């Protein structure tokens, strides 16, 4: 028996070779005569061997060690993409894949993009009707045609979710595909403070029903218009953009309070025909002005 131990770099370089191990067909070792020398420096002439079979001491199957996501914690609505990642206990070959079932009952295929990867990843797109207070993996499987194989040819057999390392243990992803049910019945404008107070119902369905969360980024300002003279556009109307808004707070379930910036207030009030300079103004709200914090 001759025992040879590679350096750490040597081992890494060998295993990173394209097609190494299970990533290709069966590997062999080629030994050219003269590989062995005695201590006097004489080269062996009998040690040549072509295509010597290689066996591997590693017979341990790869397993999933954790489920995580590269998507930031938060709420996600319809069509929002959410990354799902499985960390594998060792490097696997390209194309290794599993199918996970989420707590929304959706399935996502997670795949290794390259040889030597320890991560399988995929993207879940939120669809209508999906809901989960804390997205998790319900189960995973090696579906038909799928396998997870390490570089030595060992295949995954266990599909047990790692204890304490489910997606919900490592991320806080809220899935909310239900649109808000808010209605708007009236608007009061305070010309001194530049505050618009919307009265209606179900503003708490936005998902931020308290006065400490500024939701101006969750509202579609292009769907809000100050209708000069209330004539549905005969006179030039005043529009709103997010940059003209200081804040938007759900004061309570029936009140949405919006404060204009100083420039936004000035621009609005300088619009030809504004207020008493013309006929009675109105506010036009196109459906979809209100979005919840999940983007619905």
Brief overview:
The chain has 296 residues and is mainly beta. The chain has helices at residues 8-15, 167-170, 262-269; strands at residues 28-31, 49-53, 64-68, 74-76, 81-92, 97-102, 107-111, 117-125, 131-132, 137-141, 173-176, 183-190, 195-201, 224-227, 238-239, 245-252, 255-260, 282-285. It contains three helices and 18 strands.
What does this structure look like?
The protein has 296 residues and is mainly β. The chain starts with 7 loop residues before the first helix and ends in an 11-residue tail after the last strand. Strands 12-13-17-16 form a 4-stranded antiparallel sheet. A 3-stranded antiparallel sheet has the order 3-5-8. A 3-stranded mixed sheet has the order 4-11-9, with no helix packed on it. The chain is 7% helix and 33% strand. The longest helix has 8 residues, at 8-15.
Number of helices: 3
Q: What integer value in Å does the Rg equal?
A: 32 Å
* Helical content band: under 10%
Helix and strand run: HEEEEEEEEEEHEEEEEEEHE
**Mass-distribution shape:** elongated
Reading side by side through the largest sheet, how are the strands ordered? Answer: 12-13-17-16
The counted number of beta strands is 18
**Into which percentage range does the β-strand content fall?**
25-35%
Query: Mind summarizing the main beta sheet?
Result: 4 strands, antiparallel
Distance linking N and C termini: 68 Å
């Amino acid at each position: 028996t001759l025992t040879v131990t590679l350096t750490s770099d040597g081992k890494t370089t060998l295993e990173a070779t394209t097609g190494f191990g299970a990533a290709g067909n069966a590997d062999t070792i080629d030994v050219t005569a003269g590989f062995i020398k005695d201590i006097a420096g004489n080269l062996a002439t009998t040690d040549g061997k072509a295509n010597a079979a290689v066996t591997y001491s590693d017979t341990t199957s790869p397993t999933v060690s954790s489920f995580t996501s590269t998507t930031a914690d938060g709420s996600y609505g319809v069509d929002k993409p959410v990354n799902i990642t499985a960390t594998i206990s060792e490097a696997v070959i390209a194309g290794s894949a599993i199918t996970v079932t989420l707590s929304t009952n959706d399935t996502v295929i997670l795949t290794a993009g390259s040889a030597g990867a320890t991560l399988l990843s995929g993207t879940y797109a939120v669809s209508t009707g999906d809901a989960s207070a804390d997205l998790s993996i319900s189960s995973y499987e090696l579906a038909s045609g799928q396998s997870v194989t390490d570089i030595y040819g060992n295949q995954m057999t266990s599909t047990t979710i790692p204890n304490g390392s489910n997606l919900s243990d490592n991320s806080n992803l809220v899935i909310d595909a239900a649109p808000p049910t808010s209605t708007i019945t009236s608007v009061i404008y305070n010309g001194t403070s530049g505050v618009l107070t919307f009265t209606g119902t179900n503003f708490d369905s936005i998902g931020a029903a308290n006065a400490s969360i500024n939701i101006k980024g969750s509202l579609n300002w292009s769907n809000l218009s100050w209708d000069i003279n209330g004539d549905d556009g005969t006179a030039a109307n005043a529009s709103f953009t997010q940059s003209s808004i200081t804040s938007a707070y759900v004061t309570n379930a029936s009140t949405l309070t919006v404060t204009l910036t100083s420039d936004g207030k000035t621009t609005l009030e300088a619009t030809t025909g504004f207020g008493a300079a013309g006929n009675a103004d109105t506010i036009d709200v196109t459906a979809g002005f209100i979005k919840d914090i999940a983007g619905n």
